[in-house]
Amino acid sequence: MTNSGAVTLDLDTTIGLIFIGFLFTGFLFGVTTAQSGWYFRHYPTDRPILRILVATIWILDAVHLGLYLATMTIYLVKKEAASFGREPLPWTSNVQLLCNACAIGLIHSFYASRIWTLSREKLLLVVMAAFIMSTWVFAIVLFFKTIMTDAVAEYVPFDIAMSAMTASTDVLLCGALVILLSRSRTGTVGANRLINKLMLFTVNTGLLTSVYAILAVVMVLVSPMTSFFVMFYYIGARLYSVSLLATLNSRASLRMEAERMGERSLPDIQITTPESSTPSGSGSSSRQHEFVVSMECHTPSTFDDGISVDGSRVYCDGHRCYMLPPDVELGTYHMPPGNGGCRT
After folding, report:
1. CA–CA separation, 46 vs 53, rounded Å?
2. Rounded to an integer, what distance in angstroms lies between the CA atom of residue 83 and that of residue 75?
3. CA dihedral of 135, 139, 142, 143, whole degrees rounded to 10
4. 179-209 burial by CB neighbour count: b if 16+ within 10 A, else e?
5. d(Cα 69, Cα 299) in Å, to the nearest integer?
6. Edge-to-edge strands of the sheet including 342-343?
7. Which of 110, 248, 251, 277 has its CA 20 to 30 A from that of 103?
């Protein structure tokens, strides 16, 4: 693009959009800081490599935000916004690309390592490594291109390539993890519920990053002379950090969920049958049984048919199970108030 064409750039759709991205980036950095504090407080015994990863991601986010602030100062405080598109980008803006590329590459590598641990498929590992390295290479090329030229149109194709590879890598990693989890189904109710929850969590955490990466590609194709793609790219880069820390911080709750669900569809049930007799002096005596059910609530289950236990039948409804004598039909027997239920 020529210099005369650069004058026609609208500051509202260039510097204005970059400023909006700065505001959202600052907010997401606050979220990342809170998540990092939670991680170091609640996972003090994590492997050193994970703790180093979290610290590195936070530092990269902090450096990126500082560079972003410096870029905004150059354009807004020093009033150099009018030269946007006619002169090379400030070095602070160029280094932001490197910070984002490093953070995204590390986070992609973390997810790839988890997938490798689950699958042990060498071909999949090679494909993931190729996608991650391609994203990094395009980011480096774009970095040098922004240094050597002041024409936005000259480095737009490299921006398209980098954004497209980032989105493709997101889809590849998320899809591979979901497929591996779906193959891990064991047939037990508790395990399947936990796997479904993990799959939903994987899709939710990977969805926003993929959407923003795709939006960056679309915007740079549809409107390359504006800064829509810059805004989506910078916001999406911070969402990677939020996604990583959400994954790490959710392990405790998912582990408790796994322990609560267990692997058996019917928990162990302890039954006591206190006896009461008719008052003395009556001609005949009969026993009236009150069935008090006490159970550990590991796996909530519902059974349509009765399950035989020592000649009696067990019926479960949600978190509560009832034991009926063999001669009592379901629907004709009423549990005494206050008896039965889960022991928590």
Report:
1. 11
2. 9
3. -170
4. ebbeeeeeeebbbeebbeebbeebeebbebb
5. 51
6. 269-272, 292-296, 342-343
7. 251
Strand order in the sheet with 312-317: 307-309, 312-317, 320-324
What residue type is assigned to position 189 of the chain? Answer: V
CB atoms within 10 A of CB 247: 18
Coil/strand/helix, residue 328 = coil
> Measuring CA to CA, how many Å separate 209 from each of 140, 163, 218, 239, 308?
21, 11, 14, 6, 51
Annotate 260-304 with DSSP letters as a single string.
HH-S-SS--EEEE--EEEPPTT-SS--EEE--EEEEE-SS----S
In contact, 57 and 107? CB cutoff 8 Å: yes
Q: Which of 11-15, 19-23, 285-289, 301-305 has the highest mean pLDDT?
A: 19-23
The structure tokens 């926003």 sit at: 208
Instruction: Copy the structure tokens of residue 238.
Output: 């911070």
Measured CA angle at 229 (ends 69, 20), to 5 deg: 40
pLDDT tens sequence across 57-98: 999 999 999 999 999 988 887 766 556 656 777 888 889 989
CA atoms of 85 and 222, how far apart (whole Å): 18
Residue 307 half-sphere exposure, CB side, CA atoms within 13 Å?
Answer: 16
Closest listed residue to residue 194, CA positions, set 264, 121, 254: 254
